[in-house]
Amino acid sequence: MTAYDPDNIFAKILRGEIPSTRVYEDDDTLAFMDIMPRADGHLLVIPKTPCRNVLDATPEQLAAVMGTVQRLGHAVLKAFDADGVTIQQFNEAAGGQEVFHLHFHVLPRQEGDRLRPPGKMGDMEEIARQAEKIRSAI
Ligand code: 5GP
């Protein structure tokens, strides 16, 4: 598998080299809002240490990230009074991955809703408001 690229966009977010709307962090993981949200409250959870995806992650990285995914899953349920949560994760380009630092998508869902199409920039003020709701629900 291709080596981890330390200049991928999420590595830059981790180092604070590009801005992000952070909602939660602990020693091992970071959660921040997706800038092209496919649902209100769409966020991403990443490990703070490098790995491309599930295929090269250590069990420790996976355990840490899944703990935060579960915590944030509960937070978005509460923040958006949601009926469910979609967790998405892609591995390598052929698997749908675009950013090569392990990440899990957490998307609150309402009964009968549809995810918005990918690739459309969100309204940053609205995303900031949603992030605040999630922080309050953690
Ligand atoms: P994936 O690799 O799972 O297919 O998709 C990467 C995700 O990262 C997409 O949902 C995309 O909207 C999001 N994304 C790409 N660039 C940035 C960025 O600079 N900041 C944030 N917050 N999200 C990003």
Characteristic terms for this protein:
five-stranded antiparallel beta sheet, 138 residues, HIT family, subunit A, alpha+beta, 3 helices, binds guanosine-5'-monophosphate, 30% helix, globular
Average of the residue pLDDT scores? 98
The secondary-structure element order is HEEEHEEH
Query: Helix fraction?
Result: 25-40%
Q: Quick one: CATH superfamily?
A: HIT-like
Number of helices: 3
Strands ordered across the widest β-sheet? 1-2-3-5-4
Task: Please tell me about this protein's structure.
- The structure is a single chain.
- With 138 residues, this protein is of the alpha+beta class.
- The protein has a single domain, classed as HIT family, subunit A.
- It has helices at 9-14, 59-79, 124-137, and strands at 22-25, 29-33, 43-47, 84-88, 104-109.
- Strands 1-2-3-5-4 form a five-stranded antiparallel beta sheet.
- α2 crosses α3.
- The longest helix has 21 residues, at 59-79.
- The model has no long low-confidence stretch (mean pLDDT 98).
- Guanosine-5'-monophosphate binds at residues 9, 20, 32-36, 90, 96-99, 103.
- Residues 9, 20, 32-36, 90, 96-99, 103 line the site of guanosine-5'-monophosphate (5GP).
How does the SSE layout of this entry go?
Elements: H1 9-14, E1 22-25, E2 29-33, E3 43-47, H2 59-79, E4 84-88, E5 104-109, H3 124-137
Helix pairs in contact: 2-3
The protein binds guanosine-5'-monophosphate.
Short overview:
With 138 residues, the protein is an alpha+beta fold. It has helices spanning 9-14, 59-79, 124-137, and strands at residues 22-25, 29-33, 43-47, 84-88, 104-109.
